[in-house]
Amino acid sequence: MKNFLTCTDGSPYAPSVYDHTAWAASRIAEASVHVVHMLDPHRERAAIVDRSGSLGPDTGEELLAELVTFEETKNRRAREQGKAILAAAERHLRKAGVANVTVEQQHGELVEAVTRMETNADLVVIGKRGESADFASQHLGSNLERVIRASIRPVLVSSRTFTPIDQFLMAYDGSPSAEKAVEFAMTQPLLRGLRCLLLRAGRIDENAEWYLQETAAKLRASGFDVTAQSAPGEPDEIIPETIQRENIALLVMGAYGHSRIRHLIVGSTTTTMLRTCPVPVLMFR
Amino acid sequence: MQLNDISKEWFSNVPKDLIAGLVVALALIPEAIAFSIIAGVDPQVGLYASFCIAVVSAIAGGRPGMISAATAATALLMITLVKEHGLEYLLAATLLTGVLQIAAGLLRMGEALKFVSSSVMTGFVNALAILIFMAQLPEFAGAGWQMYAMVAGGLGIIYLIPRLTKAVPSPLVCIVVLTVISLAAGLDLRTVGDLGELPSTLPVFLLPQVPLNLETLLIILPYSIPIAVVGLLESLMTATIVDDLTDTDSNKNRECAGQGLANIASGFFGGMAGCAMIGQTVINIKSGGRGRLSTFAAGVFLLILLVVFGPWVKLIPMAALVAVMIMVSIGTFSWASLRDLPRHPKTSSLVMITTVLVVVITHNLALGVAVGVLMSTISFARKAALLMRVGTEIDESGEHRTYFVTGNLFFVSAGAFGRAFNFREVVARVTIDVTRAHFWDISSVAALDKVVLKFRRDGVTVNVIGLNEASATLIERVAVHDKAGASDSVPLH
């Protein structure tokens, strides 16, 4: 565990993404950070609209020329801006003490790039919201869910600003992705030395309680200072409440345990957590 | 991931897709009516077809943002079928066309478009434009000066309104203004209502009333095959145009199957066969349409407009329709190809013009394309054959001549190869070095054998070197050792 893949778009969230990256890098010896900035021309959306609906001689060729000229200027500027964003990212990370920083600009969609590049990375860092999502504070970045769903690595989703982390809340529901989070905490250095609040929310029965204590014992055995809590009720409400009450600075959880179909109907706990908890979230799939 | 891709293809561009769909639907109505007239069926056949094909191809097609509906290219191929056997056989032929196109998609024929050179494609669109224009001429027959004035006025509106405002589709303004003028002035002009049934209800599922036997199949197959071929050709060409305009990729094989499904739906709901439309697709992209929603919306708006404004559609004078179709014809024709005629290679221009001529004479786009492809293939083979050289050198003793063969050896260049050797010269030994030659077929191998035998008869010792490398291009033999990297051993020039 030493290679980080950090995604930036130069939005107001970007400095916080760098801070979270620097925090993670500081906990690991010889960490190296690769910052990627995507030039996504959003070809699935139309930039120029002309509703005249008429066809003149060679309208197709004229339209192509018009689109090329328009995008040429726009994307040249985007490339320059991207270069500046990456230079700022590198400065920020070096100042924060990360020695090993590389930057890269790519054409295409973030999700595809992350899927391609994360094979060389151990952790993906991304902002909770991006350039296109600041108009509503409850609105998540357009790429976030897609990246988390597609990613095979743990994803650290940074919050608006970085606050020092000394304690994390691990939302434990016994699912395979939650087990993955426990496994990660025990074997990887990232969370080592932090206090752990192990929380089981939802329907609590004897079985659930037993698993909770078992997991707490496992974590204690690998050196964590663990407080285990079980709270009957809706996880969507209990987890944010606990975070606020206990002044937790990091949420660790398994992501998107349910099917897409269920997600369409009842929504997803993961998305709700990301939206309502004002802390960074470390996600496991 | 899959669900994300679906939502991206459908919902990335919602407001613009909806408005573009509306602009397209408004232009689809006159076109669907006009193409029904070409095919010789009631306007409702083309309108139902346009609805079904647009909606189904939006879901099943491989190119988001492309508009498919009833088209001139396919309508032109069904005229005789309708005249001789009637509508029910047309519906059956439409279903068969769909089946053939799905088969083409499953057989990955979407890749086959690469065999159609750009000259043939230009010839195709030019011929299509000419045929659309020619199909409007009968409307002028026996018409008074009012008809000419109305069409000229309509074209004026279509091309001048965009200079004032780009917020409303000018073809729509043309139709509305001409309809109002003809009603207000009480002009005695033919209207859409005179042409036959217009849809008053939603399309209903119907099985074509034809006997299910071999005889029926033999009647419809000769129509279904060219319709399927031309439909796929225009669709794949249009898909390429959208690929270029939007700088995105499309799935050509899925598009073939999607066109097939769309035609099957059309056949079951009383519509004729159609395909992608070059002009409408350009209008859609120009109006801001990008996603599948734009195509879907075009189909749905088309039906809503018909049901709501049906009684008024009847009143549209043919002059307005003719003006819109002349616009489509102007927009479909590749005027740049005329400009480039002197600059392009003569053979390419010849292929383009021949394609156009064959289509205009036969009214069959499939035939024109076939002739065009044949011509461009022959012209390519002739040019590739020029890439063959035989160099030669003789050693100091004057007894040993070496021939160095380079380039493409195949049936076209085999003759020139045979003539490149000097059999009159008296030498003791001849070496033929074919290391840097490609033997593409057995004609070329036979030509080499002949040369060797001829030398041997003269008592010359012949030595051929490098044959293994050269014959690696014999595809059959490469196929025998069909291993990864087998073709890597083909010598490069």
Describe the structure.
The complex is a heterodimer of chains A (285) and B (493). Chain A has 285 residues and is α/β, with parallel strands linked by helices. In chain A, 42% of the residues lie in helices and 21% in strands. Chain A has 9 helices and 10 strands. In chain A, strands 3-2-1-4-5-10-9-6-7-8 form a 10-stranded mixed sheet, sandwiched between helices. The longest helix of chain A has 37 residues, at 59-95. The mean pLDDT of chain A is 86. Chain B has 493 residues and is of the alpha/beta class. In chain B, strands 3, 4, 5, 6 and 7 form a 5-stranded mixed sheet that branches. In chain B, strands 1-2 form a two-stranded antiparallel ribbon. In chain B, β3 (388-394) and β4 form a beta hairpin. The relative contact order of chain B is 0.16. The interface between A and B is large, with 29 and 53 residues.
Brief characterization of the structure:
The complex is a heterodimer of chains A (285) and B (493). Chain A is an alpha/beta fold.
Rounded to an integer, what's the Rg of chain A over CA atoms?
A: 21 Å
Strand content of chain A: 15-25%
Number of strands of chain A: 10
Q: Helix/strand/pairing class of chain B, anyone? A: alpha/beta
- Fraction of residues of chain B in helices? 55-70%
What general form of chain A does the structure show?
elongated
Strand order of the largest sheet of chain A: 3-2-1-4-5-10-9-6-7-8
Strand count, sense and barrel status of the largest sheet of chain A are: 10 strands, mixed
Q: Classify the secondary structure makeup of chain A into a structural class.
A: alpha/beta
- Determine the most extensive contact between two protein chains: A-B, 29 and 53 residues
Compute the gyration radius of chain B: what is it?
29 Å
Largest sheet of chain B: 5 strands, mixed
* Individual helix count of chain A: 9
Average pLDDT for all residues of chain A: 86
End-to-end C-alpha gap of chain B: 44 Å
Query: Can you write the helix and strand succession of chain A as a string?
Result: EHEHEHEHEEHEHEHEHHE
